[in-house]
Amino acid sequence: MKARSTLSLVLFALVGVALLAGCGGGGSTGSGGSSGGFAATAEAACAKADKQIAALGTPQQADVLEYMERTEAVIEE
């Protein structure tokens, strides 16, 4: 049981890092004309995903696996 909870916490941390890496910054301006549109679209998608994940709340120990699966589904979307 302890290994399962440790694995769940590791997965939770990885998802958090992935969100921060994928949704961070966006302050640079590229020389390509279409990169600005892509950045705006990506930031909008990240903002939407952040709101959906925040709405999931903080899971209790027993609910971590379900929370991770739901969070993963939001990220995949």
Short account of what is shown:
By secondary structure, this protein is mostly helical.
SSE blueprint:
Layout: H1 2-23, H2 35-55, H3 64-76
Helix pairs in contact: 1-3
Task: Based on the model shown, name its key terms.
elongated; mainly alpha; single chain; 77 residues
Structure write-up:
By secondary structure, this protein is mainly α. Helices cover 73% and strands 0% of the residues. It has helices spanning 2-23, 35-55, 64-76. Helix 1 (2-23) packs parallel to helix 3 (64-76).
Strand fraction:
under 5%
Q: How would a crystallographer describe the biggest sheet?
A: none
Helix content: over 70%
Low-pLDDT regions: none
Structural class by helix and strand composition: mainly alpha
Number of helices: 3
**Terminal CA distance:** 31 Å
Instruction: Tell the overall outline.
Output: elongated
* Average predicted confidence as pLDDT: 75
What integer value in Å does the Rg equal? Answer: 15 Å
Order of helices and strands: HHH
Total E-strand runs: 0
